[in-house]
Specification:
Length: 270
């Protein structure tokens, strides 16, 4: 079986406090986007993972293998075609983990609490079982699906710089917490913010410059996704987005759009 595991962006991300268990509470608005990895699953005598990106570990540190073991599925050989950059704030590893849980549970008819397994693997993983547009609190696992921001897919331009940000380092730089504003107040671009931007921009000032350049290139909204380093711009239409993309020859620029579907597409025969 072969599945596409979509990336996500955060329209808004507020860090609202630190919990007794060491995690942080947050308030965010997740959005699935069309950029995706592809995973292929084949029955096998042993559990293995291969990846076309040599920088991605294929040992037990990879969430794909950890998800397969957590589910207790029979052994499979898994191939990962990587398109979502690691360390970019797009949730690629979490999306891959969710894809593994969903696909193997269907392949082998396993009745499991996927939501609990997803949370045990990472705070973002439960969202990828839902996908689309979702308001989230807690660690990011208390999810409420909400209406998309527009009736049609929104054109996006992703800037993927070489700089990478480790999530734990970004959280370590948070020195103040925000008050949550509530689900109903996440209605437009004017309501959105990302509490990671200022501390990360102080560390990597080029990211601030990329955000400014997106706005100068005609983006109606631009912001860092998650803890970075991907910068995202939303555009009025695909033509405006494509014209803007031509202005970024010094950084990897990827055209994408919002996807109003679950984070993991139904598994299908290859």
């Amino acid at each position: 079986m072969q599945v596409e595991a979509y990336a996500k962006i955060n329209w808004s991300l507020r860090i609202t406090g630190k919990r007794a268990d060491g995690f942080h509470d947050l308030e965010t608005l997740f959005q699935t986007i069309s950029l995706h990895d592809t995973l292929t699953f084949r029955e096998s005598d042993c559990l293995t993972l291969t990846c076309d990106d040599p920088s991605i570990p294929t040992d037990e540190t990879n969430l794909v293998l950890r998800a397969a073991r957590a589910l207790g599925a029979p052994p499979v050989a898994i191939e990962l075609q990587k398109r979502i950059p690691a360390g970019g704030g797009l949730g690629g590893g979490s999306s891959n983990a969710a894809a593994t849980l969903v696909t193997l549970s269907r392949m082998f008819g396993i009745d499991a609490d996927l939501e609990s397994l997803a949370l045990s693997l990472g705070s973002d993983v439960p969202f990828f079982l839902v996908g689309g547009t979702a308001y989230a609190t807690g660690r990011g696992e208390v999810l409420t699906p909400v209406a998309p921001l527009a009736d049609t897919p929104l054109p996006l331009l992703l800037l993927l710089p070489d700089e990478r940000v480790l999530t734990r380092d970004a959280f370590a730089r948070i020195t103040r917490y925000s008050e949550p504003i509530g689900r109903d107040d996440h209605a437009s671009f004017a309501d959105f913010t990302n509490d990671f931007e200022e501390p990360v921009f102080a560390l990597l000032p080029r990211l601030r410059a990329l955000k400014t350049r997106l706005l100068d290139a005609g983006a109606t909204w631009a912001q860092m996704s998650g803890s970075g380093s991907t910068m995202v711009g939303a555009f009025a239409d695909a033509n405006a987005r494509d014209e803007a993309a031509a202005r970024f020859d010094d950084v990897r620029a990827v055209r994408a759009e919002t996807v109003d579907a679950r984070g993991v597409l139904p598994a299908s025969p290859r």
